[in-house]
Amino acid sequence: MNPAVWLIGAGPGDPELLTMKAVKALGLADVVLVDDLVDPRILDYCPDARIVRVGKRGGCRSTPQDFIQRLMLRYARQGLRVARLKGGDPCIFGRGGEEAQWLSAHGVACEVVNGITAGLAAATAVGIPLTQRGLATGVTLVTAHTQDGGMPDWSALARGGTTLVVYMGVAKLQDMRGQLLAAGMDAATPVAMIENASLPGQRECASTVAAMADDADAFRLRSPAVLVIGQVAACRMYGAPDAPALAETRLRRSA
Ligand code: SAH
Q1: Which range marks the domain in which residue 32 is found?
Q2: pLDDT tens string for the chain (255 positions)?
Q3: Do residues 108 and 123 both lie within one domain?
Q4: Under a CB-based contact definition with an 8 Å cutoff, are residues 167 and 119 in contact?
Q5: Would you say the CB of residue 199 lies under 6 angstroms from ligand 1?
Q6: Closest ligand 1 atom to 169 CA
Q7: What is the pTM of this model?
């Protein structure tokens, strides 16, 4: 475990959801490039590293991707161990694939360290099992926001029979609603909208495909949020509202 660059998934926010491998790599890094949506508590694991904020909200107004890649390359060529810390998993809507390819093309060894992606964490945080026998045959992770401004093929997704976990969907709810209903999805299909999953400000809005846009407005749903669409969204593994508190108690007891 000693590449020049680690692309590390920071998970959805809660530092306890980091992998041990991520913690180890952060502890070895000389310089850490930090994205938006990475919880600041995670930087406690790299107290001696130089921290460079490369997210849009971190002061580097819309740091261009190209600039970030060149920065990683420059540090790596200086012989520094570089950690690129991204929210969730680096390779789920996180450009991890592009960055790893670019580094490899420039002769720099890199390793991706998985993080728990927001969609998985959000569902579990509110007690939703993303697959459940009889309710969903699989899960599809999808972004509502594509680079060219286009939309995913909602009608194919509506017919697929899997739970849909939608990232970057807050501004697209009205469009999604129209497309899913037009594709024949049952208007009463349950939807869970989860904001700030795993963080102290976590909120959940339960709705349906027909009502999701209006409900999100009334709820003042804000990014970052994921949507879980499908029968499992109405299913709960345990008493929902105090589930995170229960989980904490369980962890404390077993510690
Ligand atoms: N690589 C990240 C996703 C980055 S795209 C991952 O694997 O999770 C950014 C989108 O992720 C946000 O628009 C939102 O849809 C989702 N997201 C990230 N963190 C979140 C959180 N704590 N709660 C809910 N959604 C989150």
Answers
A1: 5-113
A2: 567 999 999 999 999 999 999 999 999 999 999 998 899 999 999 999 999 999 865 445 556 889 999 999 999 999 999 999 999 999 999 999 999 999 999 999 999 999 999 999 999 999 999 999 999 999 999 999 877 777 899 999 999 989 999 999 999 999 999 999 999 999 999 999 999 999 999 999 999 999 999 999 999 999 999 999 999 999 999 864 554 554 454 454 444
A3: no
A4: yes
A5: yes
A6: 15
A7: 0.91
Total domains in the chain come to 2
CATH code for position 86: 3.40.1010.10
Separation of alpha carbons 38 and 12, rounded Å: 8
Q: For ligand 1, is residue 196 a contact (CB within 6 Å)?
A: yes
Q: Which two tokens stand for residue 160?
A: 């697929």
Indicate the angle between helix axes 65-77 and 96-105, nearest 10 degrees: 50
Which of 67, 85, 113 is where one domain is finished? 113
Rounded to the nearest whole angstrom, what is the distance from the C-alpha of residue 116 to the centroid of ligand 1? 10
The answer, yes or no, to whether any atom of ligand 1 lies below 6 A from the CB of 89, is yes
Given 58, 81, 113, which residue is the final one in a domain?
113
| Residue ranges in the chain assigned as alpha helix (H) | 20-28, 65-77, 96-105, 118-125, 154-159, 173-182, 212-219, 243-254
Taking the alpha carbons at both ends of the chain, their separation in whole angstroms is 28
